[in-house]
Amino acid sequence: MWLTVECFSYCILYLLLPVYHRNVTSSSSRHAQMTHLARLLSPVFPLLRWKRKIKVCLPTVGVYSRSFCSTPSEPDPIGIHKRKLFLWFSHLPQEEKQFGGVFSPETMHVDPLILERKATEKGELMSYPLQAHVPKRLAVTVEQLFEPGNSWTEGRGLNVLLYGAVGTGKSTVVRKLVLDWCAGSTLTDFKLLLPFSCEDLSKLSSVASLRDLVSRKYLHLRRHPLLSGEGDHAKDVLFLFNGMEKMQLDFRIGSTELCSDPNEPLTTHVLVVNLLRKYLLPEASILVTTRLSALDRIPPKYVSRYAQICGFNDPDRQRAYFTGRLLQGSSDTEHNQEAQALVELLYLNLQRESQLAAACFLPSYCWLTCATLHFLHFTDSKAPIQTLTGIYTSFLRLNFGGEVLGSGVGSNVLVQEHQNSLMLYVVRTVGKLAFDGVSHKRTSFSEKELEQWIGGETKTDEELRQLAVFWTDVLDFFMAPCIESSKHLLKDFSEADNRRYVFAVPAMQEYLAALYVVLGENKSALEKLSKQVSVAIGQAGEDVSALVAVLSKFVPLRIFAIFKLLKFFPKLYDKISSRNKGSIAKTMAAEMFRTEDSYNEDILDQVEKSLLGVHGPQPQQYSEAQPFELYPIFMGGLLHYRNRVILEQLHCNIQSTTVVQITRALRKYLVRELSKPQPPEELMDLLVLLYEFQNPRLSAEVLASIRSIRLTNVRMTPLKCFVLSSVLSCAPPSYYLQELDLSSCLLTRDMLQMLHPAFKHAHYLNLQFNSLGSESCILLRDLLLDPKSSLKSLQLCDNPLLDAGALTLLEALPGNQSLTHLSLMHTGLGDPGTLQLSEKLHQNVGLQDLNVAYNNIGDNAALALVDACREHPNIHTVHLYLNPLSDVGKQSLYVRGVPQSVGGSGRRVKVLASVTEGSDVSEDWHPILSVIRENASSWDRDRVKQQLKVVKMQWNFQALPSIQRKELTILLWSSLMISVRFDALVQNLKLFVFSKVFTLFTEQNMVPRLCHLKRMEGQSFGFCLKIDVNSTFEITNVKQWSPAEQSGLMNGDRVLEVNEDYIANVDLHLVQRKIQSCGLHLFLLVLRAKEYEEAVLSGFDLHVLAQASKGDGWSKPRLCHIRRHPVNGMGLTFISVNGQSGSYMVNTVMEGPAEKAGVHTGDRLIWINGVKASTLPLSTLNRTVKKCGETLTVLVIDGSSESCYVRRKMAILPVVADCQSLPHNAKTIHLVKGRNGYGFLLRQERLASTRQIAHVLREVDVGSPAEGAGMEDGDLLLAVNWEPVETAEHDDIVKKIRGSGDEVTLTSISIPGREFYRKLGIPPLLFHERVSFHCQKSQREVPLGKMSHENVENLHYLPEHTGKIIPKLPQRTSEVFL
């Protein structure tokens, strides 16, 4: 048998213990004897840990054998402590679990910048997030903070105070520090690390000694010798107190008793104070983390070192964080490639010093960015359901969970925790500011506005102290200096007037505004008072009613009945409250379907581009023109139960009755809005709203009013597919959509699989133009075989399915009986697939219409298919046009379609093979041309042209009846113009235009395109312009990623119009000036190079084509300036069009000021004083007219012209408008240098009215060339030699003027004039008289195709390195243009 040494040692101990117990009477002497026994057995104790066994041989015969259980050796407490700490601090918070648990602290953590501070500079903040890179020698690690330094005293531990603002990563640093210590990779000099939460310590009310306090939290460290206080054992101990701002420490000697014994019971705050004073365990080191507002709670003499966590101050740290977050959690190569691409785009955006880079200075916003991108790009149907609102709500709980707003004084900050909830304080201050910004469509705020909205109503000292804490700790977390606006100011950030503040993340403004409204904080003071009175009366009414009921038994007086009226007060308030909730729902619906947002991208694309920087920030557009499309979506998402639970933890309670009232009213308003046609992007936003709401009943009720969902041209992503499927899954099984249009949505096979539940609810499914391959047909086959599917029409045209995909679809024909229309047009179907289709067609008896047009089907396969269709019981139409069929084959198809039994009278199967049948006109030409019209923009033009040339060759167009002639012409014209979306335009064109367009389409096939270029302030449009030998303008050197490329411009394009003005034969410098002065928006009407060459050769009038592209009755919008009349006022009123908010028509007084200024009755109002009219209610418009002063500027357009702009998807902006009597105009003066120069001084000054930097013309000398040319002192310089210089540096402008030689041309404007254009938001050079093309009446015209020697000399190219449209001008004008 085997016996261990451990058993032997325990036997000795077992035999000796009774002896000692019998000889000891008192507990004290028993303790002394036990200590003596332990000292005697000390040589045996090491054997207890000896794991090697000793073989002992004992006799087995005649001996009673008893088994002994070997007791394991005593475990190491430090080892247990490390294991438990590692488990505790490795636990992921709920905010990380929502992503499926793929993240781990080891891979996610990136060390933030930590700077050691002196005691005198400990309160300094990082004033500017994008400041210069901090030298590495100043950055320190936590381990370096505990190295002995000048402040270290022998025998005493160090007290390190680590502080930082909210969101800089204090908790993450603490978590990583503990995990690294447990792994033995940092702070190895400390044997014991004891983390404590100051929030937990502040809640302990009972007294306890330090050792008891440790043992309560860490049972395995009970009576550990390192905490005994004997010797210098405590030098190996590090205390970590996290969140010192949540404790009230009093370092006054008279208020806090002294303690040096770790076994003495005291309150927790006294123990912490004595530890920091070094009275208790002076050898131990202490690390304290706190916020900025609590720095002074620990006197400097008790702090050895200060260190500030400064977040991620450079893009490299941010990129490392993004890489760690986005590149883990999946071994899928495709997933990692997409994640790597996202990281690169993020890094590029951060390097631009964008507003996102300023926000990601805080690691918390890096988390929010990664969480949002993970939601947008890696949503999986198998993962837990996540919403965008849920991410923002979790983000706030991650940063403010359990936080209260303490004032820094008093004994207990947890009193009235609900009233002092930090998140609720944020909502009532920052949320109020956000709501005001959303209401007035602006995102930037001055420092005075911050002071007014945040804490402007504070009264008591306690409120002032709370405000100071909030301003120090929290405000910078939400608000940041506006990076974009700062770029245009001097590099002096000390002047408060220059500084504008925006929300660190734009979506956070919309979230807080939505939370402010949903919580009911936007109520007026009267509404809040009525609620309190109603509650008080309701409570008192119950008591009074009970008392009256008792008294009425004894004193039956009728007057007692009047007290029953008290019960009506709560009911009355409930009705008022219900009406208020109805207004919230109405606001949600109105914000969802705003007319001016109809042409924006869907909200998910907007969120993505705001993060990846595809469009970048829009300087000076964050005011009235800023869309807030996330605002109503966040309002709906906050009503979701899961978000309400999280908000309740933050003490922001949303009552269930509020949710019910808003939901009931919202359903009514959404159904009302959906009765009108909505663009695809708006429908996508509606689906996102329903998804964020997560209310199946509401989704089902809203879907009941929707019969078709058309998401054409919406860029579908896995998230959008999941949203669509989730929303449609809420509908009952009996619900079916008449049409689900997903054409041109960039669908993939994986997206089809995610959309499978949505397809079950569709009768008509359109999947054309999606580049779906043959492998996608497997999913479509399964859909057709699904017994729950009732698909009647399947459109798959313009997808490369090929024969393999078609054969896969054919496998579903026998098992499907619901399909009646199948379109395989332009899918690459060949003869083998067609023959297989002919053989299996009889297996499905429900099919009625088969479209295999525009494929590679020959005569024999087509004949076989027609024969099979003729034998089919229900097929009535077969589409075979645009296939490579011979004339004989087409005639045979026509004959085969006629049943033999009838002898040629009538047709059973309609075969659409060509617009002609032999020498006769086909009676089916109309559907063929209709299909061509719908797809002409994406099909091969040569093939379409060949088909349509038959019309001219074989038809006698003039012999057709007038109705057919007009109808055919309309179809041909709309086939030509479909690429610019002019379907409805052709019905109003005149017949002579039709004939020219008909000739153009059949012979040349040319389509002018409208390109909208949008740039940022200081950015070029990104293309070069040259004038060719035909005196026309050619686009060259289109830069990658530039506004020109994004608009669709291509090298070789020929420009017909600039901002709706025809520019053929116009001088190059005039075109240059028009483009340079247009501001941030530029509209170009262009032709492809090949189309232009054909037009020149055929002598076609391009001006007619440009005019025809706009439509009949088109005219420019008009920018009109109205002066108030003493009697008639402005002479105009506004009325809503069809009662719709946001669309207004003008009524003018005959011969009134408005009519004289160019406004006509019936005009549509677009802008008023620089603000979009669609963003304002009618009451605000009327109030604007009354309070605008003596002048009013409006942008109007007639109704028919507005329809033309809407059809062309073209925004109506001042850049394309005609100017009507504006009060201020820029003036251009040409100076010739005199003997003493030009005679003026150019100074850079800050304007008193706007506090902006401007270049001012000063000190005009008497008799100088400047005075003679009309220069006035105080004018602002706009351009030098026609080149805008407002944003240029002062030294560069001086160089331009001096480099002009003896002559220079300057353009200037008065200060009131510049302020006038600034308020309107338009460039001051936009309507400058010399830029207008209409002033060039006397300009000599050169016919197309002819070029004089003088024009040849004007052929110059733009230097590629500039990226701007600045042509090299002829020598005779070199002094004007540089």
From TrEMBL:
<dbReference type="InterPro" id="IPR051261">
    <property type="entry name" value="NLR"/>
</dbReference>
<feature type="signal peptide">
    <location>
        <begin position="1"/>
        <end position="26"/>
    </location>
</feature>
<protein>
    <recommendedName>
        <fullName>NLR family member X1</fullName>
    </recommendedName>
</protein>
<feature type="domain" description="PDZ">
    <location>
        <begin position="1228"/>
        <end position="1312"/>
    </location>
</feature>
<dbReference type="InterPro" id="IPR027417">
    <property type="entry name" value="P-loop_NTPase"/>
</dbReference>
<keyword id="KW-0433">Leucine-rich repeat</keyword>
<feature type="domain" description="NACHT">
    <location>
        <begin position="158"/>
        <end position="291"/>
    </location>
</feature>
<keyword id="KW-0547">Nucleotide-binding</keyword>
<dbReference type="Pfam" id="PF05729">
    <property type="entry name" value="NACHT"/>
</dbReference>
<dbReference type="Pfam" id="PF00595">
    <property type="entry name" value="PDZ"/>
</dbReference>
<dbReference type="InterPro" id="IPR032675">
    <property type="entry name" value="LRR_dom_sf"/>
</dbReference>
<keyword id="KW-0732">Signal</keyword>
<feature type="domain" description="PDZ">
    <location>
        <begin position="1119"/>
        <end position="1200"/>
    </location>
</feature>
<dbReference type="InterPro" id="IPR036034">
    <property type="entry name" value="PDZ_sf"/>
</dbReference>
<keyword id="KW-0677">Repeat</keyword>
<feature type="domain" description="PDZ">
    <location>
        <begin position="1010"/>
        <end position="1090"/>
    </location>
</feature>
<dbReference type="InterPro" id="IPR007111">
    <property type="entry name" value="NACHT_NTPase"/>
</dbReference>
<dbReference type="InterPro" id="IPR001478">
    <property type="entry name" value="PDZ"/>
</dbReference>
<dbReference type="GO" id="GO:0005524">
    <property type="term" value="F:ATP binding"/>
</dbReference>
<keyword id="KW-0067">ATP-binding</keyword>
